[in-house]
Amino acid sequence: MDLFEYQGKQYFARYGIPVSAGGVADTVEEAVAAAEAAGYPVVVKAQVQVGGRGKAGGVKLAADAAEVRLHAADIIGLDIKGHVVRRLWVEHATDIAEEYYASFTLDRGAKAHLAMVSARGGVEIETVADEDPEAISRLHVDPATGFDERQARELVERAGLPEVAREGVVEVLEKLYRCYEEGDADLVEINPLVLTPDGRVHALDAKVTLDDNAAFRHPEWDAFRDIDELDERERLARSKGLQYVGLDGTVGIIANGAGLAMSTCDVVNQVGGSPANFLDIGGGANAEVMANALEVINSDPLVRSIFINIFGGITRGEEVAKGIVAALERVDIGSPMVVRLDGTNAEEGREILLGVDPGRLVSRPTMLEAAREAVALAGGARR
Ligand code: GDP
Ligand code: MN
Predict the structure, then answer these.
(1) Closest ligand to the CA of 95
(2) Pocket-testing residue among 42, 59, 88, 191, ligand 1, by greatest number of atoms within 8 A of Cβ
């Protein structure tokens, strides 16, 4: 999960990384209120999950309420590389002597974490990386032993940071590593990490990507989920703990496992149909999960037929079948269903499904046959 800058800064603050006081705003008047609370001068910043906001006119300094109004009105609704700005972050402005760059990320190839520091941070970091990669010092961090002060010092010296900034940057790097490691992030990046004229080191931007596989131990991450950015179907699916991908065809797809879900989409396409969505119900599909999945698919107005493709492993065929039957009692399904059940106890499962009205549900022995049937029921193949 990618965080917005203001969320990233909240995360940084928990680990003691110095960030500025500020507030979020969805309207011009809220921006003024946030500015009054933060104290002038302020910086008004577009909250979109894409870099280069500064160059796109999404980051503006304001000396008073009138300027905040002007900039906030300009930035709200601004399209930055396809992301329309709906929210602002307004913080007390910082005086900048120098801009640095600092990050930790995962280097999968090296099976290690990668720390990067540069004395040439700011809006041109991409150019620096391309034209003068030597200007970014890199250090691999063994996840088993972690990152210590000695390594932080080595990085800071190699990056050629001035004496006055070193102590402060070393401190921020140690905190940033904790944020990355204990905070279960895949990426933490500060650009710019600034040195102020009075010698303080301060994070002016925050880019954080959290590792979704660790979400189970971070109930507090729920607050970061930008539910507004999801469409209605995805919201419903997520609230039921299902993995859902919305598409724009007519066949609704339920499968167990992301791989099978995707190959089901391919087969539907192959026989001339088009998927409306796909839903991965995962490994232990029981009646409850199946009923939830059907409920989500059923709420999608694009769906003309539903293709349930289950290859039983741990998930047993008769459990899936019982789930479908139970779901039919609970949810009023508007579209005809085609089921392909294979693997563990598939035979028993198909037996159970014979009890369902064939006008509502039919079984097909192979994925291809089932796909053809589902596409036919959805109104036939594309011309
Ligand atoms: P980005 O362009 O999306 O990376 O947005 P940033 O948050 O990094 O802001 C872009 C640039 O705006 C920074 O590199 C700074 O030069 C400038 N900037 C951001 N905050 C402040 C601030 O508080 N004071 C000053 N003087 N400049 C700022
Ligand atoms: Mn930045």
Answers:
(1) 1
(2) 59
242: left (phi over 0), alpha (psi -120 to 50) or beta: beta
Rounded average pLDDT over 3-21: 96
- Residue 212 C-alpha to ligand 2 middle, in angstroms? 23
**Residue 252 resides in a domain:** yes
Angle, CA 66 vertex, CA 60 and CA 70 arms, to 5°: 50
Ligand 1: residues whose CB is within 6 Å?
Answer: 43, 45, 51-54, 59, 93-94, 96, 99, 122-123, 191-192, 204-205
For the entire predicted model, the pTM comes to: 0.70
Ligand 1 atom with the smallest distance to the CA of 56 is: 2
Whether residues 250 and 365 share a domain: the answer is yes
- Closest ligand to C-alpha of residue 45 is 1
Q: What is the CATH number of the domain that holds 177?
A: 3.30.470.20
How far apart are alpha carbons 286 and 18 in whole angstroms? 48
Q: Is position 208 within any domain?
A: yes
Residue 226 pLDDT > 70: no
Predicted pLDDT of residue 383: 53
Shortest-distance atom of ligand 1 to CA 5: 7
Any catalytic annotation for residue 101? Answer: yes
Among candidate residues 77, 92, 107, the one where a domain is terminated: 92
Question: Can you give the CATH number for the domain in which 351 is found?
Answer: 3.40.50.261
- Kindly state the average pLDDT of the residues 137-158: 97
Average pLDDT value for residue range 241-254: 88
What tokens were used for 334? Answer: 């508007």
Q: Which domain holds residue 200?
A: 98-220
Ligand 1: nearest atom to the Cα of 94: 23
Domain boundary among 54, 74, 92: 92
Q: Determine, yes or no, domain membership for 176.
A: yes
What is the total count of domains within the chain? 3
Claim to verify: residue 241 and residue 342 sit in the same structural domain: yes
Q: Containing H/E element for 343? A: strand 337-343
Residue 241's Cβ-count burial label (10 Å; 0-12, 13-18, 19+) is: exposed
Q: Residue 231 has what pLDDT?
A: 65
Please name the residue that has the structure tokens 């302020």.
Answer: 42
Same domain, yes or no: 315 and 186: no
% residues pLDDT > 90 (the chain) = 74
175 alpha carbon to ligand 1 midpoint, in Å? 21
